[in-house]
Amino acid sequence: MDAPPTFLGLPDAGEQARIALVCAPYDLTSTYGKGADLGPEALLAASGSVETWDEELGHDLERGRYTVWRPDDSAAFGRLPPEEMVTVLRAAHESHLAAGRITLGLGGEHSITYGQFAALHTRHPDLAVLQIDAHLDLRDSYDGSKHNHACIAARFLEDGVVPVQVGMRSCSREEAELVAERGLSIFWAREIVGTIGYHREVLDRLAGRPVFVTVDLDGFDPSVVPATGTPEPGGLTWLDVVRLAHMIGRHCTVVGADITELAPEPAGRSKASEFLAARLAAKLVTYFWRDL
Ligand SMILES: [Mn+2]
After folding, report:
1. 127-181, pLDDT tens digit by residue?
2. Ligand 1 centroid distance, CA of 178 (Å)
3. Where do the domains of the chain lie?
4. Looking at the domain 7-289, which fold is it?
5. Cβ distance 43 to 35 under 8 Å?
6. How far apart are the CA of 115 and the centre of ligand 1, in A?
7. Which of 16, 142, 162, 273 is packed most tightly, with the most Cβ within 10 A?
8. Cis peptide bond prior to 108, omega within 30° of 0
9. What 3-state DSSP class applies to 270?
């Protein structure tokens, strides 16, 4: 059997690593397109073909030290109830944070984010969250679970963190009412695609706090990332997302990030989505943590 893929095809740095990629092969609560449990390995496999040289900042990612964390038994992990899944992930993130590493979560459906968020929020009570997504995810529960993929932003709110949400373009009436009631920070896709004028306002909302960046790949337009569970038309471009991330990296301390909802297309189809996800992982590491 082939060895499992590493990040960017570089040797796993083990205990010496400064950045841990925490894989969450989990897709139990998704409701439409399935396959996000295959996302982490598809992203890592694609990362072997990503250039380690960042052409924009002139930085070589080969200088970094990375390790990959996987559940002991991926199949069993994939069957855990969502509440237990986030507990396992929280412990994994906490152990890497305790060892002085930054963690980059790889999903997996968006419900995986809560484990990493909770680990970071304990360490940084003033944590701010930037959420790139098509969906508000403000339902308190869905399909009987508070840890459904459609509820992640409700969990942030419940823990006292108002996420700054970018790329939004789909919600329920109840979610829209909550937005109005609470005056939430929404940057609708239709108002920002192709622009950068809103960056200043994003920064104002993050207000100098440590930042966790959570990316649901459906924030991208489906013409850019077709391989995701709930593709919504009218989304962000590659440049929209990397310009925002670059700006955040220049002005904020980013203490963690994740990339979720990659649901690879069957073998033989386009690999554009997994390559983009891998390239995005490389970009986030470059923008946020190139000096580690
Ligand atoms: Mn979404």
Report:
1. 999 999 999 999 999 988 999 999 999 999 999 999 999 999 999 999 999 999 9
2. 17
3. 7-289
4. Arginase; Chain A (3.40.800)
5. no
6. 17
7. 273
8. yes
9. coil
